[in-house]
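Obj: model holo form, ligand = nicotinamide-adenine-dinucleotide.
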Amino acid sequence: MNDVIRVAVLGAGGLGKAAAAVLERKREMRLVAICDRGGILHAPAGVDSGAVIALDPKRFVCDLSGGYATNDSIGEMVELGRAGAYDGVFLALPNLPNEFFPSVLTRFLDAGVSTCFVDALKRTKAAELMFALGDRVTATKSTYLLGCGATPGLLTAAAVVAAQSFVSVERVKIRWGVGIANWDAYRATVREDIAHLPGYTVEKAQAMTDAEVDTLLDKTDGRLVLEEMEHADDLMLQRAGVVERADQVEVGGVLDTRSAKKPVTTTMTITGTTFQGLRATHTFTLGDETSMAANVIGPALGYLKRALWLRARGIHGIFGSTEQMPMIVR
Ligand code: NAD
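Output (holo structure tokens):
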């Protein structure tokens, strides 16, 4: 491993660009490759993050100096991985359909790439499909930390820490608020949230045209209110032993696509019983000034550093963000 952790980011949408912006501030990590649907940008000495951040959502990284167009940018990233061009990968791709992330990981596994991965995956079904690839990840001596965004991620891991006060946990409730000024900047996030609305599915949300998304958002004044989401926090808190059943975990939230201000404060509450038989609730509240991007990218990079730490000690396989602690990236 080099002194500076060389990072590749798959996806250059809202979160991919935010990752470039955060990496710009880190001396222990450097962005060396980023790709999107249109192409790839690889720069061993460091990608020009400013150019990536400023890229119009309708353009691709291949339009930037040093970038090149390809209709298989994932395949190009796999090749770079085989050549040892990076130390870790952050997958900031759309989770549409649920099989997409497993298919991307399978390509790395088939090629025998041995590296570290983190994602900000959200859906329970997609997470199940990913965990099923655990033995293959171990066989390639890779370390993959899953669900390392805000939820699942920061809030779910906080629930594991908070659960330590109790001998039994009744429920974990996550209520998030996200404000984005323009849905175009986070297209996958918005579509995936639409998929949670009553009457919608992942497939239906994926098939919607931009005009149809606009029409839906016009009807709701730009807001989506989501209840009882199919979120992998349930699976991951079960894996960590915080709860026994998925129905003890509830995730919901409000997304405003017309203002960067959070429509509601994000909280994680955990209710349990202490060894003295007293029932109590801990509440973890995120500061309203922290954007979705801040609460996803910080943890994702912190977990990527942890993934490298684990892999350097011979610990391979797929783990949830509830099973490890993120590290601080200086
Ligand atoms: P986005 O739509 O803004 O960007 C997606 C990027 O992926 C684009 O650059 C697109 O070109 C690229 N892409 C799509 N298909 C590709 C392919 N086949 N090959 C290469 N590149 C491809 O997405 P976003 O809003 O930044 O969200 C990214 C992911 O982050 C979503 O899955 C979302 O659910 C997740 N997310 C997680 C959390 C969390 O807290 N866990 C919060 C927000 C978003």
